[in-house]
Amino acid sequence: MNNKSLIILGAVAIALGGAAYYLNGGAKSSAPKLNGKAVVPGLDASAVAKIEVGTKLALAAGDKGWTVTTLNGYPADREKIVENLLKLRELKVGQVVRGKSLDVTTPVVLKDSAGKELAKLELGPKHEKWGHGRYAKFAGASVLVSDSLDAFDGDAKQWCNTRIASIPSTDVTAVSYACGNEVVELEKGTNSTWTLKGLTDKEELDTSKTYSLDSALSYLDFNSVADPKLTEAELGFSTGHVYTVTYRDGSNTVKRVATVGNKVKGGSDRYFKMDNANWVFTISSYSAENMMKQRKDLVKQKSEPKKEDAKKPE
Question: What one-character-per-residue DSSP string does 119-130 give?
Fold first, then answer.
């Protein structure tokens, strides 16, 4: 091969190498640098009046404050609203993820009071290995952000206070259970020992069944808020179980009444309401069972005293 051929081949190699560099490296270096960029730049959290997460979650600000639209208008926790909007405002791109296509994303849309879109973010799945962070679409690229943004998964309970009642069991002095014509009444003595009214001489309280008498309303959270359009027949409160608790609140004696209704159609949760609340909730079957005791669940027959063996004749 002569010198002229070598020169030509060298020129071709240089040209091909330059093209490869441009396609593989040069294009990347010329692309806008996304790392560290704000995902929702310039967000004015105070202007946000509506939050929509796909079709699963919607919140809105109104005359009575923030409410969860998809939870039948139940009040939202303003502190949680502010916390999560600030998370979005501070959110930055951690890194660009090349070769990953986010085919399915959940849109998070923020709007003002007039319905004008202020910002939109397409969220992908959470990062499996990090334990925090998740994928998102930003500026046409797939990126990773450092916050997992759990509240934007669509669970309405992440945006409100789910606690229905928090009566300390140590303050409870009496409880009663009623269903139909049966009423079971119990009182707690000064030594925290329960007594049940109406026991016969052959009956006694089964103390192994008294562990939940005073704690049914200690840490009670709802699973959902019932549709206000449900009828009484669907809710089943008129034929349900009524749990009444009497407790000390400082120097005052307070009585609260809770009612457990029907099972939710297609599930195991039950409808539930408190006498001091305007909402009907659904609670877990486990929580409901603590307020659905019957006499047969708490009473047992006394054991017959053992007879002494007759003395054998000497």
Answer: EEEEEEEEPTTT
